[in-house]
Amino acid sequence: MEVITRRDLVKNSAVAAAAVAAGTAVPAAASDSTNAGGAVGRMKIIAICCSPRKGKSTAACLRICLDAAKEVSRKIDVELIELAGKQIPGSLAAGVPLEPGQKDDFPKLVPRLSDPSVAGIIIGTPVYFGNMSSLCKAFLDRCIVLWQDNLALGNKVAGVLAVGGSRNGGQELTIQSVHTSLLCQQMIVVGNGQPGPRLGGTVWSGANGGATGDEFGMATVRSLGRRVAEVALRLSGIVA
Ligand SMILES: Cc1cc2nc3c(=O)[nH]c(=O)nc-3n(C[C@H](O)[C@H](O)[C@H](O)COP(=O)(O)O)c2cc1C
Questions:
Q1: Ligand 1 pocket, mutate which of 49, 63, 129 (most atoms under 8 A from CB)
Q2: pTM of the model as a whole
């Protein structure tokens, strides 16, 4: 039976990237501990906004989630990628060729996702009929190329937030559905830790003041960001 060690877990981490760049092996102490002898380096957490509406409630929630992640350590860089306006044909995942004149913006995202310095990825989606947006599903299906590329997303930490127009509009079902895809990629899926128990960020955009006025939802969003950052830091061996 193959034994997965902690060294395997840092395969995609910023520590490994730094070691490769420096032409040195990852020292055992750096990969085995977050404390003494831990690696110095930086890591990145990116958020993918899967609303077809640019800059709306899902994007606003992801910004808050990333801010919370960044507060965990000054060694964390963050980036929001909005899929709104991008052409991501889902059928290409199954090898169906593009129609003449049809555009595909997904290939440009591939190096940004698989970059070894990216230690965590947060997916944000609106709830559409109790599930993720079609843009989100197309994006996740297209990530099959990363799965085929030696599990390029494997062992990166993943978290999910869902924004619905109703308080209980299917946010948790949606999160679980996205989780399933991320688990297939062998990502390390986390919920939002404390205060818990929650599966991820669950937001009601119909609150007074919109999504960011949803106090309960914002607490889940911030704790998700912190949880993704904390687990990614632990796995990377970077000292906060
Ligand atoms: C096709 C469609 C289906 C929707 N289904 C649900 C739903 O099942 N549950 C819910 O709470 N909100 C539902 N909504 C509302 C959106 O989730 C909500 O407006 C959300 O804030 C949109 O995110 P955005 O502002 O980032 O685009 C639906 C909206 C659309 C367009």
A1: 129
A2: 0.86
Probe ligand 1: pick from 127, 132, 137, max atoms within 8 Å of CB?
127
How remote is the CA of residue 50 from the centroid of ligand 1, in Å? 12
Which of 192, 188, 176, 186 has its CA nearest to residue 232?
Answer: 188
What is the number of domains present in the chain? 1
Reading the chain (240 residues) residue by residue, the pLDDT tens digits are 333 333 344 444 443 333 333 332 233 322 322 222 345 699 999 999 999 999 999 999 999 999 999 999 999 999 999 999 999 999 999 999 999 999 999 999 999 999 999 999 999 999 999 999 999 999 999 999 999 999 999 999 999 999 999 999 999 999 999 999 999 999 999 999 887 889 999 999 999 999 999 999 999 999 999 999 999 999 998 877
* Domain at 53, CATH number: 3.40.50.360
Q: Is residue 28 part of a domain?
A: no
From the CB of 163, is ligand 1 less than 6 Å away?
Answer: yes
Q: Is any ligand 1 atom within 6 A of the Cβ of residue 222?
A: no
Cα–ligand 1 centroid distance for 76 (angstroms): 31
Q: Is the peptide bond before 197 cis (omega within 30 degrees of 0)?
A: yes
Burial class of 160 by CB neighbour count within 10 A (0 to 12, 13 to 18, 19+): buried
Domain of residue 13 covers: 6-21+41-88+109-236
Query: Distance between CA 119 and CA 46 in Å, rounded?
Result: 8
226, part of any domain: yes
Specify the ligand 1 atom closest to the Cα of 124. Answer: 26
Compute the distance between CA of residue 189 and CA of residue 159 in angstroms, rounded to an integer: 6
